[in-house]
Amino acid sequence: MNNGDKTIKAGVMGWPVSHSLSPRLHGYWLKTYGINGTYEAMAVNPDAFAQVLKDLSGKGFAGVNVTVPHKEAALAAVDTSEAEAIRTGAVNTIVVRPDGTLLGRNTDVYGFMKNLESSYPNLPLEQGPAVVLGAGGAARAVCTSLIDGGVAELRLVNRTLSRAEALADHIGGPIKIYSWKERDLALEDVLLLVNATSLGMGGGTTLEMNLTRLPPEAVVNDIVYTPLETPLLRAAAKRGNPVVDGLGMLLHQARPGFAAWFGVEPEVTRGLRSWMLKGLPG
Ligand code: ATR
């Protein structure tokens, strides 16, 4: 696409932001589609965040992604938010509208389901339970996505019970809460197991889980992607369960933002995946 002399500007705001893979991802698409655009990493201190957002329109930005620690602050700072953002309590994508006002979106909800569907398009979620581990921001997006996808029952497991209760109260739907000790028992009869905690991330604590009760056909999805094959995915694959890694969610969540800012619906391709794999730490 040739948008003439006008360079379309977007970026990602975080604090710190140097670890973000979004510039690599959007940079690939800008090049692939021949777009006259930029996507820059922007280190924004939490104290300055609201003001920097207000200045986006004046500085000619089409929009931005926001990452840790700004996702909740972004929900409060934008002019309007989409339903998914309100339900998850977080905004990860901001679109500057023609009148200069800011629209907040949460595209993790879309990214999670697209990634799952691209590997297993016929998972009959309405026919069985799914287990989600975690009750942080990522888990909120996963739960919203599964409930919107019509899951029959969502077994929510988290170390801190009060956070699981707060999530269930906020999102609603067929959520049953299990304690962290009960996580192995919760696997009985499930179609899907999702790790939405930070456990298993390179160098950190490993997720201790006994998969004996997990049905052999249940899909196991880890949203952690460093390493790409987490100990959970390795153990699941070893016993023959289908597995979905976390990189796809990162790639798919980026699509709606790119489309809104740059006017092209980008594809998640093998070429993109291998480009991103080369950029992963470790
Ligand atoms: P994010 O926004 O990425 O989801 P978060 O809000 O910090 O990050 O959430 C991290 C999740 O990993 C939480 O569910 C957390 O459990 P708590 O709510 O009990 O804190 C979970 N988690 C992190 N370390 C853990 C550990 N050692 N054992 C069990 N759960 C852990």
Q: Any key phrases for this structure?
A:
282 residues; alpha/beta; Rossmann fold; 2 domains; six-stranded mixed β-sheet; six-stranded parallel β-sheet; 11 helices; 20% strand; binds 2'-monophosphoadenosine-5'-diphosphate
- The CATH topology of the largest domain is Rossmann fold
Low-confidence stretches: none
CATH class of the largest domain: Alpha Beta
Provide the spatial order of strands within the biggest beta sheet.
2-1-3-5-6-4
Work out the helix count. 11
Q: How many extended strands?
A: 12
Structural features, described:
- This protein has about 280 residues and is α/β, with parallel strands linked by helices.
- It folds into two domains: about 10-105 and about 255-280, Rossmann fold; about 110-245, Rossmann fold, CATH 3.40.50.
- It contains eleven helices and twelve strands.
- It has helices spanning about 20-30, 50-55, 70-75, 85-90, 110-120, 135-150, 160-170, 230-240, 245-255, 255-260, 270-280, and strands spanning about 10-15, 35-45, 60-65, 80, 95, 100-105, 130-135, 155-160, 175-180, 190-195, 220, 245.
- The strands form two sheets. A six-stranded mixed β-sheet has the order 2-1-3-5-6-4, with helices on both faces. The chain has a six-stranded parallel β-sheet with strand order 9-8-7-10-11-12, sandwiched between helices.
- The structure holds 2'-monophosphoadenosine-5'-diphosphate.
